[in-house]
Amino acid sequence: MADVHNKETRSYNMSQIKGKDTKPEILVRRFLHARGFRFRLHDKSLPGKPDLVLPKYKTVVFIHGCFWHGHAHCKYYVVPKTRTEWWLNKINTNITNDQKAETLLAAMGWKIITIWECELKKAVLDDTLARLVLSILGSKQLQNK
Fold first, then answer.
1. Which of 11, 2, 29, 59 is nearest to 120 (CA)?
2. 31: nearest Cα among 112, 114, 130, 116
């Protein structure tokens, strides 16, 4: 199946896809900030440049797009029918890089929380954000003991 756009249109569409400050990321940032959590964004000194770093809680948060990070068994992760091999290589590289970053962060003593794009849809948003707060606070309570 051929692409429905010409090369220039497809290139423009792809250039508009952001790597940071995405809608799911901003949603989580606003939620946490409104509840008094303070964090750093995209800390380049940490493996994988986590989307949010909460130093007080020794916690990092990754907010992954289901397509770009290959969320298994998710309806939002569909392998494109054109250039399938290229896309699978790209997505599998992202998955490998995510795993490496998480391994390094865990070895450094960081708690890692991954939120998937599909977990921020309206039907499950409140539950996801409540679990996020509990996960963050749980790591602080363990440090105080």
1. 29
2. 130
The predicted-structure confidence for 94-127, as pLDDT tens digits, reads as follows: 999 999 999 999 999 999 999 999 999 999 999 9
**Domain 19-144, architecture per CATH:** 3-Layer(aba) Sandwich (3.40)
Tell me whether strands 40-41 and 59-64 are parallel, antiparallel or unpaired: unpaired
Strands (E), 32-138: 40-41, 52-54, 59-64, 111-116
Two tokens at 34? 């409104």
| CA proximity to 69, closest of 131, 28, 29, 24 | 24
What are the structural domain ranges in the chain?
A: 19-144
Mean of the pLDDT values across residues 82-103?
Answer: 95
Residue owning tokens 């952001």: 18
- The 8 Å CB, 24+ separation contacts for 47-50 are 47/100, 47/101, 47/104, 47/105, 47/108, 48/97, 48/98, 48/100, 48/101, 48/102, 48/104, 48/105, 50/101, 50/105
Residue with tokens 């992202």: 94
